């Protein structure tokens, strides 16, 4: 604690909370200086999602990622079997050493001067090593691991700050919701082959809000609901539920909705053939977890934010989505589909269909979300209006179509951005 | 049972007429007529950019439409509530390098290269890739049974989405 803690920082200047009113200044979405500050204060100091362990099941399996805007790669060490996350940069002169998006490799060789590293990061080959006269610091020149790497039930996170709290402590209440999803699977979870890599000309925080926003569904996604009705889904049940602040900026909506869920909730769209297998999944959940927890797993939908930029939406399909700003008004989005291993093919087909029709950038809903967020970004530049209003539901027990979950995000954002001991990199 | 009769291999011009007609209908946003170029058992698939050989029954893809979903996609795009495409973008489909393969049963395999431009609201998006068609003859005319669109882009990011029909 320093004496400066009492001063009003960037966060408090831009996020103003009163008893019945919560406002966010639009500078937070438009300014390059704020984005630089976010990189220094948020992306450098919080746990960030890297990938799922199922993506690197075998020794030497690797995937290349951009995490917090930095190129890294995650590799299963051939000797240790452990998940390594390395800065993707040769320790000699800097070139990236992992140049493919995924694969299996015994070694990673920098093509520039052919320095070679193994899957544990150990420097194993330097051409013409005699030129160093025995002084080469082999250990010091190993690939540099990201400061902290931990995984929780298959979800791998890293942090560039060695002082960060442990991952489980960081996840706070979000941990129980990850458990709920993972426990519901009869076998291990895996990431399905095929990645949705798209973009939006909008500030990254707009997608944070949108991913956990129940309020926009009816107005924005009319054509998607029409599509569901055309396929025979009965929407009259509606969408009811609650929002929860999970601590540390994480938040979740939990709600009942009319659509089927491949976890264990059958609907006519799945087809009669799938009914027995889906009912069987449900019976299995009741047997393992009791009626109440089984009901939550099977029937309730969850849209969850793990601060700052991981979305795990367990709805008609299960999405793992992360995004990174490249400019105040542009972000890169990467989304994967998660599913239990050895799922019945007909249930898997429904899951795939649900993902691409609702959650995919070629579907019946996500393009309209993109349009909405880009539209906000364009609207901001009109000026005249300084603040966004995020007060919905402040005076009642928060419902799934209120904005309590966004306030949870913004409060943490405010706290991170108020910190004065984290300088902005030049 | 005898094997299905091999169909006549159409000339490249005949195939190009169909493909160019499709491009024109898509550019004109005459999607109801566009659908009539497809058979009742048609399929339209766009694999993910990182798995161009993706199989929509096991892999996550970008688009996997059977005839019903193609119809519903057209219904959506004809609506004022498809916010991403209302008002409609200006689109231009360029189809080139058309190659007609040897008939396979009653199907004629066709490959082509394409570029689709979308200009909308001050932003230009471009999709580039290859088409793989399977054509059949219906009532003396060529019709499309399947269209697979493999994007050459290393990701969808430059275009942001794929809200138009490629």
TrEMBL record, chain A:
Record keywords, A-Z: 2Fe-2S, Dioxygenase, Iron, Iron-sulfur, Metal-binding, NAD, Oxidoreductase
GO molecular function: 2 iron, 2 sulfur cluster binding; dioxygenase activity; iron ion binding; monooxygenase activity; oxidoreductase activity, acting on paired donors, with incorporation or reduction of molecular oxygen
Entry-linked InterPro entries: ARHD_Rieske_2Fe_2S, Rieske_2Fe-2S, Rieske_2Fe-2S_sf, Ring_hydroxy_dOase_asu_C_dom, Rng_hydr_dOase-A
Ranges of residues in domain Rieske: 48-158
UniProt superkingdom: Bacteria
Keyword hit for Iron: yes
Family in the record: Belongs to the bacterial ring-hydroxylating dioxygenase alpha subunit family.
Protein name according to UniProt: p-cumate 2,3-dioxygenase alpha subunit
UniProtKB/TrEMBL annotation, chain B:
GO aspect biological process, one term: 3-phenylpropionate catabolic process
Family annotation (InterPro entries): NTF2-like_dom_sf (IPR032710), Rng_hydr_dOase-bsu (IPR000391)
Top-level taxon in the UniProt lineage: Bacteria
Keywords: Dioxygenase, Oxidoreductase
Molecular function terms from GO: dioxygenase activity
Statement: the UniProt record of this protein carries the keyword Oxidoreductase: yes
UniProt KW Repeat keyword: no
CDD domains: ring_hydroxylating_dioxygenases_beta
UniProt record similarity statement: Belongs to the bacterial ring-hydroxylating dioxygenase beta subunit family.
Family matches, as PANTHER family: 3-PHENYLPROPIONATE_CINNAMIC ACID DIOXYGENASE SUBUNIT BETA (PTHR41534:SF2), BLR3401 PROTEIN (PTHR41534)
Name listed for the protein in its UniProt record: p-cumate 2,3-dioxygenase beta subunit
Species this chain originates from: Pseudonocardia sediminis
